[in-house]
Amino acid sequence: MRKYFGTILLVVLFLALGSYVYFYEIKGQKKRDEITAAGKKVFNINADNIDVLELIYPDQKFKLTRYGHNKWKLTQPIEDEADSDEINKIIKSLSELEKQRELNADTFKLTVFELNKPKIIIQFQVAGEKIPKSLALGRDTPAGDNMYVQVGQEPKAFLVASYQRHSFDKNIQDLRNKIVAPFEKEKVDELSLLDFRNKSEIKLNKKDEKWKIIHPIVAETSQGAVLDFLGTLEGLRAQSFLEKQKTPLKLYELSLSEGPKISFFRDGKKFYARRSDRKAWMVVEDGIDKKIFKDVFAFREKDVLELNVLDVKKIVINRKNIDPSGSTLRVTEGQWMWGDKKLKNDRVRNFLNSMTDTEVEDFIDNPSNNLSTYGLDKPTSSISIYGENNKEILSILAAKSNSPYLYIKRKNQKKPLYKVSGAFLNNLPKSFENWVDKP
What we know:
The protein is an alpha+beta fold. The chain folds into four domains: 1-40; 47-175, no CATH class; 185-299, Immunoglobulin-like; 309-435, no CATH class. The chain is 20% helix and 35% strand. The protein contains seven helices and 26 strands. It has helices spanning 2-40, 84-96, 165-168, 172-175, 223-234, 288-292, 345-356, and strands at 50-57, 60-67, 71-76, 80-81, 101-103, 120-126, 133-140, 146-151, 157-161, 190-195, 200-207, 210-215, 240-242, 249-256, 262-267, 270-275, 281-284, 314-319, 323-332, 335-338, 341-342, 360-364, 381-386, 392-400, 405-410, 417-421. Strand 8 and strand 9 (157-161) form a beta hairpin. The radius of gyration is 36 Å and the shape is elongated.
């Protein structure tokens, strides 16, 4: 046993030292740091426990009350929704405010520090406590990097960083909720827009994560256009507020399945928004009607010739005055061919890309049964596109109008007809001989 006594003693000492380092130096240091940090704080409070906040200035007073989780309402001098993010920043700053120095009774000068007539008083109620707490902000120190503050009526002052004044120096516009349309975009599955100028209504709904126009027509819908509309609306903020307003010209009324109804008005050059669950008139940016609200055309899918160029394996083109018997282009192992001739791949891809980029300029939803009205009884061109296993991806007929535009229709589809720019056809050569990749 004596033989191992020294080793055992070393192990015991090592474990004891390790325990000391862990429990005192590591865990103990963390606790000591917390105590030190708490000692620097002006208030040892948890911001989440503040239920009532008052900001008192020489000429006005604002009172705010918490409701729900991290939500606030303004109760004085008016009742309205508060900007909860802004209020939470204020109480966070209050809970984290640190003393730079303490001025006790010997060096405390109420009048000199301008704490007898403070510029700002922050008063707040902590949940579970009967007596509210308060903090008065006096003037800055001569150096300007700190300011004098006083907790309650204590006969002493603290120096805190002067930049913190901005955290508490607010006006009523700062404190009010500026969100015009409160909703969660992901939860919206119905949208209705009444246009009082044109006495029209647009309705859309979402099913299986896909939006569709259902009124005044049922039509293919641009998912991007709807999401952009909702995104712009979601980001819309009031520039200022009016408590009373003579009823101006009503432009639109917007209803979403998520959130309140929102009406938009114009009075001269000023635009206003008003929610069904809020009294305040919100002044919004000029021209918001043009930025957000469009007619049904804005929501329609205009990329009717869109396709994935990499999926295309065969193109059949028939042009009445050039190749009436038709021309067939095929891709083999990444090489486009015209018969047995190799073509310049970039020329074919450029044509397909220009076709994909072509957007509808106008929709003809109820075309005449007489297709000669649009020249489609005798189309000037037809294009059919195929993918793997000769599966048809897209097939159209095209006819030139008395303008730079084409009328096109999908084969086997009576309506709608589309009016598009004819520029993509200009990317076709008069003869595919011009696309042959010659050595």
